[in-house]
Fold:
Amino acid sequence: MIKNIVLDIGHVLIGFEWMDHIRARFDEETARIVTDAIWKKDYWSELDRGVLSDEEILELFYSEAPDHRQEIKEAFDNVGECLLRCDYAIPWIEELKSKGFNVYYLSNYSEHLMRVNPSVLDFLPHMDGGVFSCYAKKIKPDPEIYRCLLEKYDLRPEECLFFDDREENVVTARELGIQAVQFESYEQAKAVTDGLE
Structure:
């Protein structure tokens, strides 16, 4: 029996519109260079892990495009503009709670994003708790971050239903005995949770 709903945040409760953000600031070629510098080698995951400082992460970005330090810094400093809380987030959480479910988050998320746009996380007080990667010092799909959530709230894996937009994160959850669904849309996920009644 499912008692706990566990939600990823990025691309589930928050939209992350990177390309809109970057193209509004730079020409197409610069946007490509900056995007490759920040995302191509997955340095962003190290930001989410919370082990390196922002300055150390920026140096990794710069190493990919030394001639575009200023543009990379501008994109990084203003990344909060990418974030938009989904309109359905709070109503969905409240609906799940009204049906008796506990609602938690499990998210790869950096302190940098928290600082540059804290208001986008306004749904957190409506939830029963959760784990951010930057505090756990682990990122999905590392099994340890899932165990961190389970142990912190004394949750039984088989009583949890997890939604995440990334297949590899869903696979790890299932390997740990957590029921998991790859998130495609609010409508799809709500149909799943409605079916739990």
